[in-house]
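SAMPLE LOG
Freezer: B-3
Tube label: C17
Construct: single chain, 162 aa
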Amino acid sequence: MATKRHSVFNLSIILIPWLTLLFIGKKSLKRYSISGIFIVIFEIINHLYGHRRKWWKFYDFRKSFIRDELPFSVGPYMPLSMWLLKYSYGNFKKFIILNAIADGLFAFLIIDLFKKMKVIRLNRLSHLQFFFYLHYKAYLLYGVQYLVDKIKGWNPYDNLHL
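STRUCTURE (predicted):
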C-alpha cells in the first residue's frame, strides 16, 4: 500500500501537467496529441524495461509499476512533449536544446530532489546515463510528429503558438 505522501505525489505529477493543457490551444492539442500519445506508450514500455532492470528504486516497501513508474509516464510526458512541440516544432535545433534542458534538469536536479523527498532514487544508472535514457526519446518524438504532419498535410513551419 502506498503511503499518503506517495499517493499525493502521484496525483500531483499527473494532474498538474495535464491541467496546463487547458492553455495550449485547441489547434495545438489536436495537432500534437498523436505524438504525445505515442511517446507515452513508448515511455511506458521503457519504464517497464527499466523497472525490470532495477534502474531506479522507489522508497515505498512494495514494488508496483502501476503505483511507482506509471504516474511518471502518464503525468508529465505527454503534456511536456506537447508544449515542447508547440514552442519549437519546425526548428529542430531549438527543439533538441529545449529537450536537453528539460531532460538535464530532471536527470541532474529533480531526481536528487525526489531522492531527498524519499520518493525515488537512481539505482543502476548514473545521472548521465539517466539523462541519455530520457533524451533519446526527443528524436523519436520529433520524427513521429514529422510523420503525422506529412500524413495530415500540415506544414511543420506553421506557428500555432503565435
